[in-house]
Amino acid sequence: MTQPRPNLANVIELLYSVQMPLYKYNGPISCDVDFDRSGLQGKTAIVTGASQGANGIGERYVRALVRSRVKKTRSSSLKQLKTSHLRVFSYDASGPREPDLKVVDVNLKGVLYTSKLATHYFISQNGKTETKQQEDTCLILIGSGAAFLDCPRSPQYQATKYVGTKILSKEAFDHVKSFGS
Fold it and tell me: pLDDT class for 116, splitting at 50, 70, 90?
């Protein structure tokens, strides 16, 4: 009995899950600092869209990869790569669509209005000066890991979740405490 030939997508997924380290958020990316290329040494990179004699961004990618000591190969050797199926996508080249901002109404405006209203009533109930007679007040906002992770297909969602974390920051709390709502 012969073993079935592995699907290229499964092989890539397996390689990805085996070779990639766990993601660790280290803060926003600074475009002014060069990235650490040591993890690229000995790896294989395939650059598409950079024709022979390429210039511009394709050339810069290839030069950066060569400096990083990735494995080099000729494109003719890539003919051995096969796939079990082909997907064709229809692409509308008319330009970008206007972003859907409904998520902003719910995740951003909803949190802002709720926080503003809660702060107003917390202060009107307890005043601006801390005392032992104050009633205990608490505002809990539920967030998302999207506030800290890359979400390239949903920047509106990510932005609204990030703002939600800043509403409860110490700086925001100190501001409300000193100025009221």
Answer: confident
155-167 and 170-179 are packed helices; what angle lies between their axes, rounded to 10 degrees? Answer: 50
How far is it, in rounded angstroms, from Cα 84 to Cα 10? 11
Look at residues 63, 39, 30, 25 and name the one whose alpha carbon lies nearest to residue 148: 25
Interhelix angle 110-126/155-167, rounded to 10 degrees, is 10
**Model confidence at 159: pLDDT above 70:** yes
**Helical segments of the chain, H only:** 8-19, 57-67, 102-103, 110-126, 155-167, 170-179
Indicate the pTM of the whole model: 0.41
Based on the number of CB atoms within 10 Å of its own CB, is 20 exposed (0-12), middle (13-18) or buried (19 or more)? exposed
**How large is the C-alpha radius of gyration of the chain?**
26
* 179 to 16, 111, 169: CA distances (angstroms): 51, 20, 16
Q: How far is CA 133 from the centre of its chain?
A: 45
Average pLDDT over residues 29-43: 72
